[in-house]
């Protein structure tokens, strides 16, 4: 289903976001000025992942509401 596919995609993006945060922390720990450009790229990717993850989570919540409403309607119809 769409919700399961979206969940898998979100899981992969969460892993990528964690990796970007880890990489950014390592770059900060090294403290080399020569890593400034790389840190900037990592930071942009991290921000982009955060934005897309928030949108996908909102979409998942919308799917869940639709599914819940459908279940409630089907249950009411069944009980009548």
Q: What do the pLDDT scores average to?
A: 88
Relative strand content: under 5%
Report the span from N to C terminus.
29 Å
Number of helices: 2
Order of helices and strands: HH
Radius of gyration: 20 Å
Helix percent band: over 70%
**Biggest sheet record:** none
Protein model, in words:
The protein is mainly α. It has one domain (2-79). 91% of the residues lie in helices and 0% in strands. It contains 2 helices and no strands. The chain has helices spanning 2-30, 36-79. α1 (2-30) packs antiparallel against α2 (36-79). It is rod-shaped, with a radius of gyration of 20 Å. It starts with a helix and ends with a helix. The model has no long low-confidence stretch (mean pLDDT 88).
Record the SSE blueprint.
Layout: H1 2-30, H2 36-79
Key traits:
91% helix; rod-shaped; mainly alpha; 80 residues
Give a short overview.
The protein has 2 helices and no strands. With 80 residues, it is mainly α.
